[in-house]
């Protein structure tokens, strides 16, 4: 019993390539359209949250270290700089 190899015509290959190209374009267009929707959603969310950001206060922790182990003498100005 011998196995027969399937025959693929050139027309079948061209049709498969064309369908693959159309599918690829459809996926790319879908992604581009969804990206525009997401960008618009982000813009609206930013506008809505813009007022909340302006009302919040910011807190920072500043540490003035004047005593380094490899320094000959402690640094005097680092604590004053941290206070400023």
- Percent of sequence in beta strands: under 5%
The coarse silhouette is: elongated
Strand count, sense and barrel status of the largest sheet are: none
Q: What is the radius of gyration?
A: 33 Å
The helix/strand order is HH
Distance between the termini: 93 Å
Q: Would you report the number of β strands?
A: 0
How confident overall, as mean pLDDT? 76
Helix and strand composition category: mainly alpha
How many distinct folded domains? 1
Helix % is 55-70%
Number of helices: 2
Low-confidence stretches: none
Question: Overview of this structure, please?
Answer:
With 84 residues, this protein is an all-alpha fold. Helix content is 63%, strand content 0%. The chain has helices spanning 10-55, 77-83. It starts with 9 loop residues before the first helix and ends with a helix. The mean pLDDT is 76.
Features:
single chain, 84 residues, mainly alpha, 63% helix
State the gist of this model.
The chain is mainly α and 84 residues long. The protein has helices spanning 10-55, 77-83.
Which SSEs are present, and which pair or pack?
Elements: H1 10-55, H2 77-83
């Amino acid at each position: 019993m011998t196995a027969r190899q399937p025959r693929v015509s050139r027309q079948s290959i061209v049709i498969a390539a064309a369908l693959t190209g159309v599918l690829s374009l459809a996926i790319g267009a879908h992604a581009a359209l969804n990206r525009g929707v997401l960008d618009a959603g982000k813009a609206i969310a930013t506008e809505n949250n813009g007022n909340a950001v302006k009302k919040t206060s910011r807190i920072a922790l500043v540490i003035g270290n004047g005593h380094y182990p490899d320094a000959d003498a402690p640094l005097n100005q680092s604590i004053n700089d941290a206070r400023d």
